[in-house]
Every structure is written in structure tokens, then in C-alpha cells.
Specification:
This protein has 209 residues and is an all-alpha fold. The chain is built from 13 helices and no strands. The radius of gyration is 20 Å and the shape is globular.
């Protein structure tokens, strides 16, 4: 476990060679420790080494066949390789292993958004948000998907639901702004409002993006 933590720390510092040596030491010391393979696989995904990440996911699944974290790595790696059928199967397997897990629901929804399956994305984002109103990422992506697909009335209903659920104020502010400018996005008035908000809330990196 210590080597795994040190590996994650090294990876975060951009020292990939050291990180891989540490992860290797972790799995050598504990071949049955699936989470070491998961940590290694996640690190490899971050640098787009899809095949190597898949290898780590496979090793984790050899130890724990229904480990959702490893199945999600499979999904991300297959998606990175444009093997969409295998990616979808992996994401669905992760969700089957943890049916009420918001992380798994959002991962599948994001895959569907990337592959232009708006209805699939909206279904799983809605499920994640409805099950857990602290899942602000699901809420924002759900509204964004509705706006993208010109379903503004449904987007407004989501906003109303979020207001009743006392969603965080920064989330509500961003949703109100997106919906208000949905018919003329990123035009001068919208950009001016985003600049004003960023000046008022400099720590809001989402608005900054």
C-alpha cells in the first residue's frame, strides 16, 4: 500500500518512471492487491497509454473479476482506442457491478455523450442526479446536454428541481447563465457576463473554462 501511495505521489509530480517503478514494487509485493493495478492503470490513462492501462485493468480483474474501478479503466482505455463496443460493454459491466454508483452512471453517460447518444447520456445523468443530489457534475452535464440538444424547457425544469434541492449556488449560477444565453451562446453579451462572473468568482475554474 505504501508503494502505491508513493507511486501516485510521483505520478502527480510528473515523475512517471519513478511512479512505474513504485507501482511495480507494489504489485510484486502483493500480487493479490487489485487496487495497486487500478492506481497504476489510472495513472497510465492520464498519459494516454491505453494499451498499458488495459493490461493493468486486466490484472486487477484477474484478482477481483467484478471490481468496478478496473472495469471503468477498461471502458476509458477502449474508448481512447476508439473501440466503442468494448468500451460500452466495460462501462455497463461496471454499472452492473455497482448499480447505484454515481461514478459508474456518469462514466457511462459521458461515453454516450462522446458517441452522440444524447438520450443514453441524459438517462444516466438523470439517474445519478436523482439518486444523489450532491452529484453536481451529473446535474451540470445533464442541463448541458439538454441545452446542446435544444431541449430548453426540460433544462429549465432541471434548474427548478436543482433550486428546490438547494444545489450549490455556484452550480445554480452557471446553470442559470447557460440557459439564459442558450439561444446565443458565446456571443458578446454571454462572453461579457462570463468575464464579469469570473472577476467576481476568480476561484470558479469551471466558469473560467
Amino acid at each position: 500500500a505504501v508503494h502505491t501511495v508513493l507511486g501516485l505521489t510521483a505520478a502527480a509530480a510528473g515523475q512517471m518512471d519513478l511512479a512505474e517503478r513504485l507501482f511495480g514494487a507494489a504489485v510484486e509485493a502483493r500480487p493479490d492487491l487489485a487496487l495497486a493495478h487500478v492506481a497504476w492503470g489510472r495513472t497510465l490513462l492520464a498519459v494516454y497509454r491505453w494499451d498499458d492501462a488495459l493490461a493493468q485493468a486486466d490484472q486487477a480483474l484477474a484478482v477481483a473479476p467484478k471490481l468496478a474501478a478496473a472495469l471503468l479503466i477498461q471502458g476509458d482505455a477502449y474508448a481512447g482506442l476508439d473501440q466503442h463496443a468494448k468500451a460500452e460493454a466495460a462501462y455497463r459491466a461496471a454499472l452492473a457491478a455497482r448499480p447505484a454508483d454515481g461514478v459508474c452512471q456518469i462514466a457511462l453517460a459521458r461515453f454516450y455523450r462522446r458517441t452522440d447518444n444524447a438520450l443514453g447520456a441524459q438517462r444516466y445523468l438523470q439517474e445519478a442526479w436523482s439518486a444523489d443530489h450532491t452529484q453536481s457534475a451529473a446535474l451540470e452535464e445533464l442541463v448541458d446536454s439538454y441545452v446542446e440538444n435544444n431541449k430548453l424547457e426540460i433544462a429549465r425544469k432541471c434548474l427548478e428541481e436543482a433550486e428546490r434541492a438547494d444545489a450549490p449556488e455556484d452550480v445554480l449560477r452557471r446553470l442559470r447563465t447557460e440557459i439564459h444565453y442558450a439561444t446565443a451562446p458565446l456571443q458578446s453579451a454571454h462572453l461579457a457576463e462570463l468575464r464579469r462572473q469570473l472577476e467576481a468568482h476568480p476561484d470558479d475554474f469551471v466558469t473560467g473554462l
